[in-house]
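Example 3.2
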Amino acid sequence: MKNEKDRIIINLKKSRTHIDKIIQMVEEDKECISIMQQNLAVIGLLRSSHEMLLHRHLKTCFAKAFSTGNQGTKNRMIEEVISVSKLFNR
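Structure, written as C-alpha cells:
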C-alpha cells in the first residue's frame, strides 16, 4: 500500500508542477498548442491518480465495509463509488 501511496503523491506533485508551467506559459503568451499539450499531460496524471485512489479505496475502505455485514454501510459505500464514477466520467 505504501508504494501505491507514493505513486499517487508523485503523480499529484507532477500535476502541480505542470500546472505552474501552464500558468507561466499562458502569462508569457506561449503557443496555444504547447499549452494544450501540457494541459493534457496534467489531465492524464490526474486521471491516473484518480484510478489509483479508487483502486486503493476499493481494496481498503470498501473491502472493510463489506466485511462488516452491515447492509446500510454496504449500500452507502456502493453509492459513494457510483457517485465518484459518474463524476469521473463527465
